[in-house]
């Protein structure tokens, strides 16, 4: 238990220091708690970097130059042992929004001089009192929409600044009862198995029958921009699952790098999770035969014996660029 708590204390101190950082000091702030050889993974165009210098140059320094008074508005925070490596490594998860005044362009996204909310989910692996691995997912399409650049106006679900947990109990700063986390993780594993079963035998059960086994009827699904957020099993089927399964083919599950839970919260990420084909047109991109990857984060809240809320991050810009659609490049050209 102290192992998880020590990791939480370290990462929360790291976040507090980041809020005081400037573009000029960010490398030193990162180096205080990140290993020199820390692996830092970011969505396109940040990609995989090494050490505090790599993370600062690729992501943090440009972000701090664009956003004034940046603060982390954290909705979920927990720690756990990674099921994927036999529960040997210790990870923390943070999810919410990075909020600031969008005062200078960022990645060719025009500044607004107004509040902007950058959706994020961050995984950190802690070892010997240092952060040795990070996965930082942020929703750049969501930021673009706030700046008036709506690249996917016909998304099947809703654009909104997405809420945290309905129960407002997502920041698990104190230790949790271990059996609760085990129950959450087992439910996530069961849900993943149900998806695999549905892919292998799509006519065995209806989509509602499949989902109702592991989800509450009033589930809330907060997906990435380009897809959006949706509510209740039936609307999730209509506004995401149905279009995804109809238009995407030959899905291959590549596995996860981390999957863990604490209390009633759990989640995972992969790099990539899925390889698939946009066979029949998805997100307004014409169907093609290119094999493309989806790097995905899923964060869950369990209510009783079912999942009630799900926040999803997908590296959409990477997925689209593999199909020849360079969203940021097009934005710069415009």
Keyword list:
15 strands; 31% helix
Radius of gyration, whole Å:
19 Å
Largest sheet: 6 strands, mixed
Helix and strand succession? HHEEHEEEEHHHEEHEEEEEEEHH
Low-confidence regions: none
Q: Helix amount, in percent?
A: 25-40%
Structural class: alpha+beta
Average pLDDT, to the nearest integer?
A: 96
Spatial shape: globular
> What's the total number of strands?
15
User: Strand order within the widest sheet?
Assistant: 2-1-6-5-4-3
In angstroms, what separates the terminal alpha carbons? Answer: 53 Å
Number of helices: 9
β-strand percent reads 25-35%
Description:
The protein has 334 residues and is an alpha+beta fold. Helix content is 31%, strand content 35%. It is built from nine helices and 15 strands. It has a six-stranded mixed sheet with strand order 2-1-6-5-4-3. A six-stranded mixed sheet has the order 8-7-15-14-11-10. Helix 1 packs antiparallel against helix 2 and helix 2 crosses helix 3 (51-66). The longest helix is centred in the middle third of the chain and has 23 residues, at 178-200. The protein is globular.
What's the gist of this structure?
By secondary structure, this protein is of the alpha+beta class. The chain is built from nine helices and 15 strands.
Question: How would you summarize the topology of this molecule?
Answer:
Blueprint: H1 2-18, H2 26-33, E1 34-42, E2 47-50, H3 51-66, E3 67-81, E4 90-102, E5 115-127, E6 130-138, H4 140-146, H5 178-200, H6 207-212, E7 215-222, E8 229-231, H7 233-247, E9 248-253, E10 258-262, E11 265-269, E12 274-278, E13 291-294, E14 296-303, E15 306-314, H8 316-321, H9 327-333
Parallel strand pairs: 1-6, 7-15
Antiparallel strand pairs: 1-2, 3-4, 4-5, 5-6, 7-8, 9-12, 10-11, 11-14, 12-13, 14-15
